[in-house]
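Continuing the batch. This is chain 6 of the set; chains 1 through 5 are on the previous pages. Same settings as before, nothing changed between runs. Recording input and output for traceability.
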Amino acid sequence: MKNSNYGKVYFVGAGPGNPELLTIKAARILAKAEVVITDRLVSEEIIKEYVNPEAIIIPVGKQGRSNASTPQTEINNLIVQFATSYKTVVRLKGGDVSLYSNVLDELLTVNEYNIEYEIVPGITALSGASAYTGVPLTARGYATGVRILTYYQDEAISIEAWKHLAAFEDTLVFYMTGNALPQLVNNLLKAGADATIPFIVVEQATTPNQYVHQFNLGEFNQQLHPEFLSPSLVIMGKVTALYKQFAWLPNNKERKHYFKPLQDYPELISLINNIQHLSHVSRA
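Output for chain 6:
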């Protein structure tokens, strides 16, 4: 049962970056929001154009290797504290709410306090990158399905699983894996992957700063390659050979950040500090 002492929390997916890919429902909820607790990977244009101008905007972004990242426990506490004082609280997440977004921790929190909530899906980076590179992930004759994974250490994937992945019957899509790509490629090759299998790394998919890098497994670790800009999505498999044929969006040659690093968060953010028991809010 809903606890009448709290407002309602909306977990909303903001899409992969391009503000025009925000859903109609998400825009409607943001227009009435009193508080928006937002990730770093949410377009600044979405905040400016769609969020209620009277809303409190709180950045609680996470960024790999950054000390400015907000701990998950603090985000959980903020959701509860703001739901105590406001009727409409939005937890705004990049991409889709249910895919690599830590939503489970936050759902457990609202359930613990019997806070009413709703989950609003968004376009994930997976489908956004597929559309904006012209790579159909399950193209007939190229792949039988899609495997969605993340890789950051060897223990994350078992030896037996590597063998199945290396067969490349499916298209493999890796989130949050840009920094570990050399190890990922080596593990696939050791597991028997064909060295000619192509793959692409899509930086900042769907945004004006999208940039696509093309490689194959056998050559990747023998050539120089840049540090990939965040967020980057890795798409591996035979379907990525279609990129050259169907790419319709040119690369942005500047290769600059679309999503500002946490320490440079937008000046538009304001915070009201008169909420009871709210002793600390992380300002990135």
